[in-house]
Amino acid sequence: MKQYFHIINDPRFRLVYHEHRLFGDGPSPKKIRLNREGFTIVPGVKKKTMVYPGMLLAEHPSLEKGDLHAPIYGMITEINARSVFVEAVNLEEVEPGAFPAPMEPVDLLKEGTEGEELILAVKKLGVNTRSLGRRVKTLIVNGLNPEPGVRWAEPMLVEHAAEIRAGLELQRRFRRAEEIILAVPAGCKVKLSGVRTVEVDPMYPNSVNELLIKEVTGEENPPDVAAVGMHNVWSLGRVALTGLPLMETVITIGTAKDWGNYIVKNGSIVGELLEFTGISLKSGDTILRGGPLRGESLDRLDRSITKGAYGFFVVNAGEVPPIEGDSPCINCGACIQICPTRIDPRMLSRYAEFGRYDMSRKENFRLCVDCGLCGYVCIARRPVLQYIRLAVKKLEEEERLSRLTPIEPVAKG
């Protein structure tokens, strides 16, 4: 598997950056747009409701999905099937008593709170627990930047060590792992008490969790081993130290040349972030929520930063050849050579393009680790990763519906 990783010699695929920049605070948002898909709005929350930082707005039925909280003082201006919109207010212009009493901090680190009780408490504070609550013997904390261009991992290990330690302490109390390993870039000297550190070659896509496990253990898909991103551990530590709901995320904002690491409010509008960081858009530029390889392009500046997002980038026109949605595959094989899991992105993208999602099963679509290298090297500039993601989504929906379909009783006689 490793032989394919070094086909790309571009230094931008190194996940370690020698320039260490402090984390800056993002702008004070004028408006917030929170994703509420799958959430149930709590009673009393409606249009024109006044909200305060940490106020519960919506709950998610899954134990693995953190509940939704307001990150600012403001008034709800709209609630629709996909979003909750909040406009900021000037506290000096608001009458006393306009806001409900703020919540009291929750002491997650107190003795005696463990296991399922602790996981539920964390979920209620807005932290997604899917990657934190799985029962395994070994949990690997991914201390690498998630993809090229994202640059907060190294400074986070140093500047936010308190959050990381608190997050790991809660992880221990979940009683979900016998051993916790911190995977860091080769040459990194960071050590955490009680946690074994393993150095990993910081060449992308080694930071993808499935591939990181292989780097650390030497095995593919070993039983009872899982990996969790440091971003998730930071979120866990954040609520542990503050006792308040998760209202922020850490992201790298920038272009290929100019960038910075910021702590921004969940739901921050991307147009405001561009204005705050002084990044101007030109004709043909593309904005991405996430990273340059795996992020999703946004069509409007009133979109927002979702909970857990780790990057926001502008790809300037001319830097990367544009993707052509109707471009046919030319069978060059570049995507097959670069794929770290040895599947055939060429055929998977074709099946999805023509709606033959069922055919993806024979191509082992579940082995895709979503690294984005296939689309990066595609000479025909096809949206290979996006096609594969479409097939995965369609097949997962099909499987979910099949589980919900009642079985007809067999007629007797």
From TrEMBL:
GO terms for molecular function: 4 iron, 4 sulfur cluster binding; electron transfer activity; metal ion binding. GO terms for cellular component: membrane. It comes from the Bacteria. Keywords: Iron, Iron-sulfur, Metal-binding. It holds the Pfam family Fer4_17. Residues 319-350 form the 4Fe-4S ferredoxin-type domain. This is 4Fe-4S dicluster domain-containing protein. It comes from Mailhella massiliensis. The lineage of its organism: Bacteria, Pseudomonadati, Thermodesulfobacteriota, Desulfovibrionia, Desulfovibrionales.
